[in-house]
Structure to design on (197 residues):
């Protein structure tokens, strides 16, 4: 029996997306129990969230479940799909580790919780934004799994928009809250790639 690698890529993507939702469900419930002390949900922050959701979820899901726009489909092979699977699994593992390290301090937006603590243990000893690292891995996995130019690369564009629109704002918010502790933390860590950037 010959494997349909286009379908395999779609199924893997959908299962990984569902796994991500499960990983995020418990931390989301826990975080809601801790009140938000300060939020920075500007119009640009909301736009960035929409663009990221479109690129990592909505646009690929349209192609996965409807096959459109089929005019932009391209050939795939088992090597590409397996590479995509390995990268997405690394992304999911990093999501899990990051959520565990953050605990109730996690938020999907630019929020500070009551009695917010600067998390510098676990994965945060190596990088300041491992959640963004995980999303970048997801965005990079997507074109390997989805054999459609739009569905595949929409994640890189969508999440890239969120990353570059939000990163500076998030770091300013953390520096305002934690001052020299955060500046010292920045001096000894990289943003998303350990020892590189």
């Amino acid at each position: 029996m010959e494997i349909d690698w286009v379908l395999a890529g779609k199924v893997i993507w959908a299962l990984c997306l569902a796994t991500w939702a499960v990983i995020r469900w418990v931390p989301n419930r826990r975080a809601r129990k801790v009140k938000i002390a300060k939020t920075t949900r500007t119009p640009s922050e909301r736009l960035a969230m929409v663009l990221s959701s479109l690129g990592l979820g909505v646009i690929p899901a349209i192609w996965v479940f409807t096959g459109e726009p089929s005019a932009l489909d391209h050939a795939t092979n088992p090597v590409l799909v397996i590479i995509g699977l390995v990268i997405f699994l690394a992304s999911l593992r990093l999501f899990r580790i990051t959520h565990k390290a953050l605990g109730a301090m996690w938020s999907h937006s630019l929020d500070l919780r009551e009695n917010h603590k600067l998390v510098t243990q676990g994965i945060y000893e190596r990088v300041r934004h491992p959640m963004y690292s995980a999303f970048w891995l997801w965005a990079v996995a997507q074109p390997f799994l989805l054999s459609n130019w739009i569905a595949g690369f929409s994640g890189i564009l969508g999440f890239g928009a969120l990353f570059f629109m939000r990163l500076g704002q998030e770091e300013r918010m953390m520096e305002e809250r934690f001052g020299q502790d955060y500046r010292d933390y920045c001096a000894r860590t990289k943003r998303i790639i350990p020892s590189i950037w």
Summary: The longest helix spans residues 149-178. The chain has one domain: 5-188. Helices lie at 5-32, 43-66, 78-102, 130-145, 149-178, 180-188.
